[in-house]
Amino acid sequence: ALPGGTLMILGEAGTVLVSSDRGERWTALASPYKGSFFGGVVAAVGAVVAFGLRGRIYRSTDAGKSWVQVASPGEASLMGGTRLADGTLVLAGAAGTALVSRDHGKSFQRLETRTTRAFSKAVDGGPQALMIMGEAGARRVPMAAAGP
Hints:
By secondary structure, the protein is an all-beta fold. Helices cover 0% and strands 44% of the residues.
């Protein structure tokens, strides 16, 4: 759900659909990527960050009408995204990947997880830490490892 009540679906083959009537009708938007999106997260400033196959990350500040590719520090597929209470964005994915953004999705830094097991979700893990869930269960990871 985007600010203002618009709904967005991101999916296979670069699918981007939006609805402004609570899901009654959907409109396809031009996609910045022909590969698969596995999800999206809305930044505190309202920007949408879409992520997926091969570590691709795209950001839109106009509800999906236009997109900018965001540099990714890796090529592992990204499966889950979360916005923490302080506005930090976290993307989780294959090969032990956890990426952190403290600038509303304009850039991401790798968080050291010390594993190659896939992650699918991250949640707040207490002061300066995340709990990241995936195929090996839950792992608490210090946020300081992600840099500024």
